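In this section we walk through a basic example: taking a raw amino acid sequence and producing a predicted 3D structure, encoded as discrete structure tokens. The instruction is simple. Fold the sequence below.
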Amino acid sequence: MEFFETLQARQSIRAFEQESLEPEKVERILEAIDYAPSAGNLQAFAVYVVISTELRKKLARVASDQAFLAQAPAVLVFCAHPGRSQGKYGKRGAELYSLQDATIACTYAMLAATALGLSSVWVGAFEEDEVGRVLRLPGEYRPIALLPIGKGAESPPRRSRRNPDELIRRI
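The resulting token sequence is shown next.
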């Protein structure tokens, strides 16, 4: 899929077919994550690939009972690793750059999934401490985004977008 077609095709999908993901597609998504830019090339993030049905159900519960997290065949959990940035960038690295690194990586994964004909939705509504407990995350990791991925089972109408003139300021 051409890049701008991928951008236009991506939309948030919250219903997934009950079929497993092809391992080669998962690997391509993970490869795309590795290409994501990061502050100082530190890659101050970690990604957990959650395929366990039991863990996906637990994630759904601690994410405001968003059941589609359990439906998706995989959920990628993007975590910031503040300490990895702090050594080079201090407080700003820990509090901002590591979060940016994790969110950029998540965006790359989302676009890669779309390019591969898969669907996803960015989930930010969850209890951080509970996600950490469910996945037994090391204390230095902070969950930033959950990204369920799978074959979409819905095709909602495109949602309207703000006019670019409302978003962009040319100075």
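Looking at the output, two observations stand out. The two ends are 34 Å apart (CA to CA). The chain has one domain: 3-156. In the next section we compare this with other chains.
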